[in-house]
Amino acid sequence: MLATGSTMLPVYALLREAGLDLDFSLVKTFNLDEYYPGNQFREFMNAQLFEHVNIDAANVHFPTVDYDEVIAAAGGIDLCILGIGVNGHIAFNEPGSSADSRTRVVELDESTRVRNSKLNNGVDIPQQAISVGVATILDCKKIVVLANGADKTSAVHEARYSDISDKCPASFLQTHADVTWLVS
Ligand code: GLP
């Protein structure tokens, strides 16, 4: 399962550099989220990764209302690569998202919209998105969370060491048996 966002840019750059040495022909990808309405994250993924590797377009997936069933039918997710929001969101599970949430249309926090607009040359960000749920993420066999920059320090600390609470959806990752945090 794949994340978008600024944190992922170096990851996709490394995959592009590895280029022809990597075989994506049997890889199935499921992105975490997408604006609703919108296709910005699909365009991001096309530009950053999919146009540069031999992935089969039929194996590329973005959230739909039946996403959890589609994922289950594909055999589940082996690896989930996550970023974390400044407010502790994972995918677009904003504060208040429950541990048993599944793929659904969500309301974006104003702080998320403002930040993501700034990171994208001021483009207007929709008020809603379609996002996998916390439970969809916790079903993944292995989870890697990437975080960098001083503005993530507080969210990372809360996620890893505070009580598990929907105030910081990333704190639900404490209940998963195989999470690796890569923080810089
Ligand atoms: C975004 C995405 C997340 C992403 C997170 C961090 O809004 N919905 O999937 O991981 O927020 O974004 P960034 O890496 O730009 O800080």
What features would you describe in this structure?
It is built from six helices and eight strands, in the order αββαβαββαβαβαβ. With 184 residues, the chain is α/β, with parallel strands linked by helices. Strand 7 (142-147), helix 6 and strand 8 form a beta-alpha-beta unit. The protein is globular. The two termini are 22 Å apart. The mean pLDDT is 97. Bound molecules: 2-amino-2-deoxy-6-O-phosphono-alpha-D-glucopyranose. 2-amino-2-deoxy-6-O-phosphono-alpha-D-glucopyranose binds at residues 3-7, 32-33, 83, 85, 91-92, 112, 116, 119.
List keywords for this structure.
8 strands; Rossmann fold; binds 2-amino-2-deoxy-6-O-phosphono-alpha-D-glucopyranose; globular; three-stranded parallel beta sheet; alpha/beta
**What is the domain total for the residues?**
1
Q: Which percent range describes the beta-strand content?
A: 15-25%
Shape descriptor: globular
Total number of helical segments?
6
The molecules bound to the chains, other than polymers, are: 2-amino-2-deoxy-6-O-phosphono-alpha-D-glucopyranose
Sequence of strands across the biggest β-sheet? 2-6-5
Label the CATH architecture.
Answer: 3-Layer(aba) Sandwich
What is the fold-level CATH name, i.e. the topology?
Rossmann fold
Distance between the termini: 22 Å
Write the topology of this structure.
Elements: H1 9-18, E1 29-30, E2 33-36, H2 40-48, E3 60-61, H3 67-73, E4 79-82, E5 104-107, H4 110-119, E6 128-131, H5 134-138, E7 142-147, H6 153-161, E8 179-183
Parallel strand pairs: 1-3, 4-7, 7-8
Antiparallel strand pairs: 2-6, 5-6
